[in-house]
């Protein structure tokens, strides 16, 4: 039996990137009580120990049974999904995700509006009074859209 002791630190050693721990406990949807995160951290520590054992036992040239390969692949997928979920929430809390979405949305909205305006102008240019046509040409030349 392997005993694991969880020690709270200011950085996460296994990551070796020096990623700081959250300053305050994060709140996630559908959480039941305050003890679950602690329980899952213990489970993650056990997973790390199991991974170390498997890394020591499995060699590159080993031919693993299909069922074992499937379990390792699924475990990796599940852990990647969990890590991306937590990282995404952290980034969202820091405002990193919304900013990109907002900028993309604003660019798309601006592009659509410009296309609609230009389509409208194309449809009206033959019947447009000279004075209005001159104003449109002035505006377009100021933006660099017209020669």
How are the SSEs placed, and which strands pair?
Layout (H helix, E strand, L loop, with lengths): L35 H22 L8 H28 L2 H29 L5 H14 L4
Please, could you describe this protein's structure?
The protein is mainly α and 147 residues long. It has two domains: 13-20 and 33-98; 99-143. The protein contains four helices and no strands. The longest helix is centred in the C-terminal third of the chain and has 29 residues, at 96-124. The N and C termini lie far apart (79 Å). Mean pLDDT is 77; it is low at 12-18.
**Alpha-beta classification:** mainly alpha
Secondary structure tally, helices: 4
Q: How many strand elements?
A: 0
- What would the average pLDDT be, to the nearest integer? 77
Number of structural domains: 2
| Element string (H = helix, E = strand) | HHHH
Q: Looking at the structure, what is the overall shape? A: elongated
Q: Main sheet? A: none
Q: pLDDT under 50 segments (min length 5)?
A: 12-18
Relative strand content: under 5%
Helix content: 55-70%
Rounded to the nearest angstrom, the radius of gyration is 29 Å
The separation of the N and C termini measures 79 Å
Main features:
147 residues, mainly alpha, 2 domains, elongated
Short summary of the structure?
This protein is mostly helical and 147 residues long. It has 4 helices and no strands.
């Amino acid at each position: 039996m392997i005993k694991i002791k969880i020690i709270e630190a200011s950085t996460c050693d296994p990551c070796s990137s020096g990623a700081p721990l959250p300053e305050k406990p994060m709140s996630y949807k559908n959480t039941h009580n305050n003890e679950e995160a602690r329980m899952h951290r213990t489970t993650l520590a056990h997973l790390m120990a199991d991974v170390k054992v498997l890394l020591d036992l499995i060699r590159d040239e080993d031919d693993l049974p299909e069922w074992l390969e499937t379990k390792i692949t699924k475990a990796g997928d599940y852990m990647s999904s969990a890590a991306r979920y937590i990282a995404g929430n952290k980034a969202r809390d820091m405002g990193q995700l919304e900013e990109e979405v907002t900028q993309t949305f604003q660019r798309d909205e601006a592009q659509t509006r410009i296309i609609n305006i230009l389509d409208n102008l194309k449809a009206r240019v033959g019947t447009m009074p000279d004075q209005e046509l001159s104003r449109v040409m002035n505006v377009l030349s100021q933006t660099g859209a017209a020669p």
